[in-house]
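I am writing to request your help with a piece of structural work I have in hand. Thank you for your consideration; the sequence and its tokens are set out here:
=====
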Amino acid sequence: MTLINNVALRPMLEDPDLKDKVAIAVPPYNKGKATFSGCNMLFMGSNCKNTDEAWKFIEMALTKEQVLERSKMLNIPVTRKSLIDEFSKLDPYNAVRAECVEVGIGMPRTTWSPRFQALRNEMVQKVLYSKASIEEALDEAQNKLLEDINN
């Protein structure tokens, strides 16, 4: 269980030793689905000296062709609804990844996300220093997170 960026995820999904051991899912939720979907944005600062060129770049970068090409090259989800079907056909996990973008927010507003990060770090340390097996650490982290979510 982890929140992971797409660059780090790609080698895991392509590793034959991890086939059927790694999956993608929308995180657990109480009221409505929500997840972190990144906060890299295209913008022009208020002191931009080349606004016409910047705007042309943003327009080009957001074309269907560029968005789909970037998703293939960088293994990142598409951000246009019109490309979800085509994106989903590229990989079995892409439908879930597209859903994560759909319910995603730039910065998590879920109460459990900071706790999740702390539990994940604690879990990794326990495994690295042989204080718990992978299974034990995962079970403990999941139970603690669910306890926090339910309170």
Notes: The chain has two domains: 6-109, 111-151. DSSP finds seven helices and two strands in the chain. Residues 111-151 form one domain.
